[in-house]
Design brief:
Length: about 375
């Protein structure tokens, strides 16, 4: 085993985040409160939305989006199988049926054609993912969803800092769900956000994340008079804490620089991989730019199989990962009827994710690509 260790991802966290979290603790307000409200406003502004609703994870954001859209038993929701399993699970949370659609080979994303191929009269919604930070074709899918009279929920878990048609990836979305997991470009540890433009719907979403109360806990505590809250509907505890939001506010200030650095590192990978047959690295789509939350490569006639490549990299201290999972191949979805998903199955079988984060050096990249070149020569 090599003494060299190159992790696949390291979150960018420093003293500013530690100080902000400590300030939240010292304030005595550690649950959902003023820092969450500020984080919602500032994040929404950055991604081009009128409203932000902070929640405990992107998974809970997806769940609330479907609840708000009125999706339930008897409905179908078209989703990519090529996504983290939470995308499909959220559909099951509301009692609806996930229907798996195939994706585009270059972007890993749903297209109008792949959705239309599996859409039925029971289709109530589509969850489209900006996969690995690569934006899907927002103009095409939003127009198609409106024509089909279905709700388009955007799973933007990985997309903070990505751009589609000159705007932030989630700008103009009816409902977009975001993640702040440590694998993402910016993080709050765990945590998520819903962004949207509909103020009335945002009011309900804030109620849904807090047990259905008509007055938030923060507003009750801020009142000089007793407030008797009412519980308007059966709901959930999906709140973010002020400690998390304090970290998130610092992270927002880093976002632009982190994306620029990741794009620079990705450009270096492209340069080093040029001329190496058998590997297709992820690239910007024609209509936008990716934040390179993940830098994946697809094996395309490479002489060594994906798992062997991963094993060799691991032996030499490089922590790469398999490519994006396919939910329909997991035991949780065994027995679910699907149509053919050839592109999904190829990507999940023949792709891998290379290290890309703020501590990756040019020397690290040369070392990693050097291993790939050795394997290509076998």
């Amino acid at each position: 085993m090599s003494e060299r260790k190159i992790p696949v991802m390291i979150p960018m966290l420093g003293e500013e985040e530690a100080a902000a979290a400590a300030d939240a603790v010292r304030s005595g307000w550690v649950a959902q409160g003023p820092r969450v409200a500020r984080f919602e406003q500032e994040f929404a502004a950055i991604v081009g939305a009128a409203q932000g609703v902070a929640v405990s994870s992107c998974t809970t954001a997806l769940h609330l989006a479907l609840v708000a859209a009125g999706v339930g038993p008897g409905d179908e929701v078209v989703v990519p199988s090529l996504s983290f399993i939470a995308t499909a699970n959220a559909v099951r949370y509301v009692g609806a049926t996930p229907v798996f659609a195939d994706v585009d080979l270059a972007t890993g994303n749903l297209t109008v054609e792949t959705v239309d191929a599996v859409r039925t009269p029971r289709t109530r919604a589509v969850i489209a993912v900006h996969q690995g930070g690569v934006p899907f074709d927002t103009e095409a899918l939003r127009k198609a969803a409106a024509g089909w009279d279905v709700v388009l929920v955007e799973d933007a878990a990985c997309a903070a800092g990505s751009v589609a048609y000159g705007r932030p990836a989630g700008a103009g979305a009816a409902l977009a769900a975001w993640s702040f997991h440590p694998r993402k470009v910016i993080t709050t540890g765990e945590g998520g956000m819903l962004t949207l433009d509909d103020a009335d719907q945002a009011v309900r979403l804030r109620r849904l994340r807090e047990h259905g109360m008509n007055v938030s806990a923060a507003d009750r505590h801020a009142s000089s008079q007793p407030v008797l809250e009412a519980y308007l509907e059966t709901a959930y505890n999906y709140r973010m804490t002020d400690i998390q939001a304090a970290v998130g506010l610092v992270q927002l200030g880093r976002l632009e620089g982190l994306v620029a650095q990741r794009r620079s590192l990705a450009a270096r990978y492209h340069e080093l991989l040029s001329g190496l047959d058998g590997l297709l690295p992820v690239r910007d789509p024609a209509y936008g730019t990716t934040n390179y939350q993940s830098f994946w490569v697809l094996l395309d006639g490479f002489p060594v199989g994906r798992d062997e490549v991963l094993a060799e990299l691991a032996t030499r201290g490089v922590s790469a990962r398999r490519g994006i999972m396919a939910a329909h191949l997991e035991p949780a979805y065994a027995g679910v009827t699907t149509g053919p998903l050839p592109v999904t199955e190829r990507i999940t079988r023949e792709s891998l994710i290379l290290p890309l984060h703020h501590k990756v050096t040019e020397d690290d990249q040369e070392y990693i690509v050097g291993i790939l070149r050795e394997l290509a020569a076998r």
